[in-house]
Amino acid sequence: xxxxxxxxxxxxxxxxxxxxxxxxxxxxxxxxxxxxxxxxxxxxxxxxxxxxxxxxxxxxxxxxxxxxxxxxxxxxxxxxxxxxxxxxxxxxxxxxxxxxxxxxxxxxxxxxxxxxxxxxxxxxxxxxxxxxxxxxxxxxxxxxxxxxxxxxxxxxxxxxxxxxxxxxxxxxxxxxxxxxxxxxxxxxxxxxxxxxxxxxxxxxxxxxxxxxxxxxxxxxxxxxxxxxxxxxxxxxxxxxxxxxxxxxxxxxxxxxxxxxxxxxxxxxxxxxxxxxxxxxxxxxxxxxxxxxxxxxxxxxxxxxxxxxxxxxxxxxxxxxxxxxxxxxxxxxxxxxxxxxxxxxxxxxxxxxxxxxxxxxxxxxxxxxxxxxxxxxxxxxxxxxxxxxxxxxxxxxxxxxxxxxxxxxxxxxxxxxxxxxxxxxxxxxxxxxxxxxxxxxxxxxxxxxxxxxxxxxxxxxxxxxxxxxxxxxxxxxxxxxxxxxxxxxxxxxxxxxxxxxxxxxxxxxxxxxxxxxxxxxxxxxxxxxxxxxxxxxxxxxxxxxxxxxxxxxxxxxxxxxxxxxxxxxxxxxxxxxxxxxxxxxxxxxxxxxxxxxxx
Length: 598
Prior knowledge:
This protein is α+β, with helices and mostly antiparallel strands. It has a domain at 162-264 and 313-357 and 386-596: 4-Layer Sandwich (Purple Acid Phosphatase, chain A, domain 2), CATH 3.60.21.10. 19% of the residues lie in helices and 22% in strands. It is built from eleven helices and 27 strands. It has helices spanning 2-31, 175-186, 205-209, 217-221, 269-274, 279-291, 303-310, 316-321, 394-403, 406-409, 461-472, and strands spanning 44-46, 53-59, 65-70, 76-79, 81-84, 89-90, 110-111, 115-121, 130-137, 143-145, 149-151, 162-166, 191-194, 227-229, 237-239, 250-252, 335-339, 342-346, 413-417, 437-442, 448-454, 477-480, 486-490, 496-500, 562-569, 574-581, 590-596. Strand 20 and strand 21 form a beta hairpin. Helix 6 (279-291) crosses helix 7. It is globular.
């Protein structure tokens, strides 16, 4: 009996050892994905004022000391404030470290520790650039330096500036080439205005920092990308992006991909992104569970607010990564800032993108999937809007106040940036930007037969409420993205609309025979072609692409192998757009359009 026990004991110990070794190997494999001997990003610039600017960088360790040295001879120094990102993770769909295929390392969302460092550089003089670099000392004493760059505070009125207008990077294949061509063609820009959708899944850390395919967000804008491109006879070229944000501040708007949905450690991050719910759903669910005493409440006084956010949607990672101007009402979500001759007004105009499919298995923009008809917790609630911008809303009232402010009125150039398009011939202009109306039809016994959503065109908040305000205030340019296309328009009052979001792929242009997927026999009318809001797209003024059928100029660019960037020059008032054919690495950048803001 004793020998049997001893044998059993040894087997148990052996099993424990094997499990421990496997866990250790898995742990080592996971940790080998990350580097603690380098900075996760080079420094980049945020929130310039008349005398200050912020320097920000990221590491995968907190650091014993984190500071910036700057000025002549880099003799001055200032410490950085260090914070840890609260929601960054990797999962089975991450392409990071040794995980090349889905699920190789991560089987579910797993927290990833990332620290953010921010230092405020003070005593600056507008128009004067000074050198700077960041230094981080690890806990073991090893010192890690960035390269040396230059910075300057916000420019004064009258300063000639080149502003990059870009959007919808989302790790698309041509983004590193796009940004590299900006750097090669224009040189150092003075600021970047990005109209949303920086990445695909905001809580997936590698999309921001180190996706192993080589085209993550920060590397592309810092000249550290490593993406191969080119499919013609000349072979492939590796694109590095451009060193832009080390020298120029970045101003961003929230797109739908900056938003994450209901928190879950079991689903993939892709599923979390797709599982957004309107606030009213979470509020009703909270009341229900609270009434049934089924909430495991913490002593946190903000428990209710946090629970509702965790069970609807949040932009926490986006807000933790960037330091942007703030409004009292919207914080970083919507704001206004003066930059040289520009008054930039950034709106939070985004909704949840869902499929146009009408298939019974689709949780789409126009319907719920049939198997969920009696499961409200599984409903997607259509393309619900994240932040109200309709007349009378908090954001609308803030916009009214901003447009009547002296800072706005005295600005030479008045530019509004948002994510969703008010005018477009792309796909995502349909349906209207309004809260979906849920329509449930039942049979005589009460069973749900159809569960669909309508979007009344007359209730489009951008067209009905926002655009009249902007025209009255004499805004010259409305800049946006979302449809991954280049097209532009001009209203009767002379206000320009530019959608310059085809930086790495396109979702197509819908004119003539090419039609959007829209529902049939619905109450509302959904435009299959053209701009549903009544403007005609303007053909490029310099070198338009032409239709293969008749050789006529095309009023858009919507191709997956041609990438676009736009530059606003404040000295001339001209917005210029450029294209680059990624199929042929030896091809040149072509300026194909320009128009002037008056």
